[in-house]
Each structure stands twice: as structure tokens, then as C-alpha cells.
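Q: How do we represent a protein-ligand complex in a form that can be generated cell by cell?
A: Start from the inputs.
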Amino acid sequence: MFTVAPKHIFIALCSLFLFYTVSIYTRTYNYNHNKEMQLKLAGKGKLVWPKYNCQSCHQIYGLGGYLGPDLTNIYSHPKKGNQYIRTMLKSGIRQMPAFELEEDEINALLEFLKSTDASGNADPSQFTVNEFGLTETNEN
Ligand code: HEC
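Then emit the C-alpha cells for the protein with heme C bound:
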């Protein structure tokens, strides 16, 4: 009959612990400074969005007011994008008010809209509302 002495279990566990600890502390991280800065800026933009009440008229991922269009994917829209959004913010049009944003607020907001664009697709034409008021995608 094969038996294992408690001291061998102890030694095995200690070696595993040491091996794991060394492997954790000697691991190299692929730290991406640029990505980190982009995320920080997008985080600031996420706060600029409610500061100027954009959500009262616009939707992100289909959520928000309905006076203006959904802006989730405006950043990658072939005819719109970065410069178009800047111009729209500065000059406004019809019910879209002109805003006097600081340059760094605009940059943060644009980074936020870039991140919503990269993370989701909220084309309202792809949704229908069912009898319970819930949305369903049309791509089934
Ligand atoms: C009072 C309501 C209102 C508020 C607040 C508002 N918008 Fe608008 N926005 C509109 C309307 C309405 C339009 C559509 C204008 C048109 O084409 O007639 C629009 C259009 C836009 C467009 C162009 C959309 C497109 O597809 O052409 C962008 C970009 C935009 N708004 C960004 C913003 C941002 C960013 C904020 C917050 C800083 C904001 N808006 C706040 C009403 C608003």
C-alpha cells in the first residue's frame, strides 16, 4: 500500500507555493501606456457627456433622449466622425445647441464616442419593440 507522509505533502505544497510566487513576480507585463491614456481620456469624456446633458437628447447604445440621433457609432460613420462631431459641438444646428466646451473636454468627449463605437453597435433600425416594450434585434 502506497502512503504519503505528511511532511512530504508539506514539502510539496511549499515548493508549489514558491514556484507560483516566483512565477508571478518574475512575469513581464506588456504594459501599453498609450492604451492607458486613451482609457483615462474616454473616462473623462464619459463625465463630460452628462455634464452638458447630451443624454437628454441623444442615445448611447439606444439609451437616452430621442430628440437627437443615437451617437454610439457616429465616430466611425463614413461621412461623419471626428471633425464632423467637433463642428457640430461648436456650431450646433436646428435643435442641436452650440456648446462652449473647453478643448480638453472636446477631446475627452471624442475619445468617449470612439470607445462607444468600438464597443457596441446601436443602429436603431436593427431593433423592434415587442408588446412588452422590450427591444429585440432583427438579425435573428
Ligand atoms: C436640446 C437637445 C440636445 C442636446 C442637449 C444635445 N444635442 Fe446633439 N443634437 C440634437 C439634435 C436635435 C440633433 C439633430 C440636428 C439636426 O440634424 O437637425 C443633434 C445632432 C448632434 C450631432 C450630429 C449627429 C448626426 O448624426 O449628424 C452630434 C455629433 C451631436 N448632436 C452631439 C451632441 C453632444 C456631444 C451633446 C452634448 C455635449 C449634444 N449633442 C447635446 C439635440 C441635442
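The longest strand covers residues 127-129. The pocket of heme C is lined by residues 52-54, 56-58, 67-69, 71, 74, 80, 85, 88-89, 93-97, 99, 109 (CB under 6 Å).
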